[in-house]
Design brief:
This protein is mainly alpha-helical and 246 residues long. The protein has helices spanning 20-30, 40-50, 59-80, 95-124, 147-162, 177-190, 196-200, 206-221, and strands at 2-4, 11-13, 193-195, 225-229, 236-240. 51% of the residues lie in helices and 8% in strands. It has a 3-stranded antiparallel sheet. The chain has a two-stranded antiparallel ribbon with strand order 1-2.
Length: 246
Amino acid sequence: MEVVAAQDPFSIDVERFHGPLDLLLHLIRNQDIDIFDIPIAKITEQFLAAIRAVEHLELERAGEFLEMAATLVRIKAQMLFPRRVDDEETEDPRADLVRRLLEFEHFREAAQLMERSERERARLFARGFVEARPAPRLADLPLDTEWDEVWDALVRLGERLNAPEIVHHVRGREVKMEDKIQEIMALLEQLRRVEFARIVEPWGTRIHAVASLLACLELAKRSVVRVRQASPFTPLWIFHARDDAA
């Protein structure tokens, strides 16, 4: 969409601007106008001429341009009001608009700089590349230690080096599976069946529990005993093979 202002020789495509501030800043910078002394009547006419076809834009964007047009018309009307010579405290009606334009220009330039940096980085590095950060330089700290402290530390180090080496020998308790087999058979001579927990209970250690389980499995392999469990996580029972009617 191109609209040619009546008093300007250049064409303006409203759709390529990111909002009314972008269009307004383009009109000012393109004509080398001092942003602190905007000829509000001229800029207002050019802005209105540029948005004559604004109805072709989306409703939200069209509302932004129309709101700015109303602001410019209001400022133009305020500039036409007579002002007293001694009325120095009254702020220029254009002041708020100038602040908004300067702020917009600042962030626009920052965004353009970041976009250029991103393109340059994409040209040099692959996606996901993270540049290694240099290690921070360690500050030079003055020596704040007395020589007596250094000497004491050396003496203690020498004593530690000359001290006899202390060696600890740790031997685990041996648990023989044959001993567990004899214990199980001795219990089965007295009882028709034995619960596995009863075999482990006198010892209460993991190694005895493992050795006892291996002993039960070995006896079952030799067909000397039968091992039964009604369901998972229920008590495990050991029967003598000759007494197991099943």
